[in-house]
């Protein structure tokens, strides 16, 4: 009798309805990947194999497989929401100290926890490449990505780069004056830059340029350095900048160990040293005085104010002191066979090495890895229209198998009733 076939069909139809129901239930789950039921027929076998005249004995569920096609990307406006466009998974570390295995996800809804770590809703920490002094360490092992949310310490200025153009048509001040910052007749041009002491207080480092008498080989200018209106203590006096007849600096462009006394707002004083003042990009052309390039390191204390993540997954933090630094780069993982990943729930998968060949971890947009879109989330890849059609098919599948059992029961009853 054919009860076996009908019963197996009912079990398969029930499984299909479970899969469709789970897909529908997760139609709004970020990063969710839909599943499908895959069935296989069954035959009874003997010592001699399956007979050509043998009817099958039913159906079995061969696999419930997940389909990792791309979901739509929805803009959210939240800086810490990340979506992967293309291949790859976020690499996450379990909050449990007992678990050392990485987890993988396409759900990029992250937040900053109390310790500054980027985590998902269940506390799993986002993995990436750390930065040292703003430089991403690509060759290192991915680590927990973390913001410094507490007050960052001030850093004293140690290097200043200044490139100016000194007007070759400027008048020579004769006799050579002693520079007085409050008397513009004692110098030709001036500019200044903000520098920081070890406590994060700002000071004005000023440069006063005086043109010398041109010669057959070029022109010497002198530069006097002042901090907050007081001449630096070393190097004492004017320093010489020598330009050739083409207006190119040939010597005197780098000043070392600039020493000054920093006076804080409360009146205390601290001796400070700027390691290098680089003026080597300066020129002397027939054009008005101007600053062509300027940079200085150092910073005041500050707190985290905003974050930005670009399409390569590089995370930059901006602090209240205006300092912007790279803190790391999001790492992505891909697999030879993503179907071999095992679902853990919570939009997480784990690597079953025998099926996937192991995780291939790298930076976004490298190898075959996709790019990162910030302020966005990948939506579920469930198509409700298709799922509702599949639900109707599974319902009819169930009804048809129930009817086959009913028919077999009618036939059996007929046999029993024979006299």
TrEMBL record:
Q: Which residues form a coiled coil?
A: none
> What GO terms in the biological process aspect are recorded for it?
bacterial-type flagellum-dependent swarming motility
**Compartments reported by the entry:** Bacterial flagellum basal body
Domain of life, per the record? Bacteria
Instruction: Give start and end of each Flagellar basal-body/hook protein C-terminal domain.
Output: 373-418
Q: Which residues form the Flagellar hook protein FlgE/F/G-like D1 domain?
A: 83-135
List GO terms (cellular component aspect).
bacterial-type flagellum basal body; bacterial-type flagellum hook; cytosol
- The residue ranges of the Flagellar basal body rod protein N-terminal domain are 6-33
Boundaries of every Flagellar hook protein FlgE D2 domain copy: 165-298
UniProt keywords, alphabetically:
Bacterial flagellum, Cell projection, Cilium, Flagellum
* Pfam families referenced in this protein's UniProt entry, alphabetically: Flg_bb_rod (PF00460), Flg_bbr_C (PF06429), FlgE_D2 (PF07559), LlgE_F_G_D1 (PF22692)
Q: Which InterPro entries match?
A: Falgellar_hook_FlgE_sf, Flag_bb_rod_N, Flagellar_basal_body_rod_CS, Flagellar_FlgE/F/G, Flg_bb/hook_C_dom, FlgE/F/G-like, FlgE_D2, LlgE_F_G-like_D1
Q: What job does the chain carry out?
A: A flexible structure which links the flagellar filament to the drive apparatus in the basal body.
UniProt similarity note: Belongs to the flagella basal body rod proteins family.
What protein name is recorded for this chain?
A: Flagellar hook protein FlgE
Native organism: Pseudogulbenkiania ferrooxidans 2002
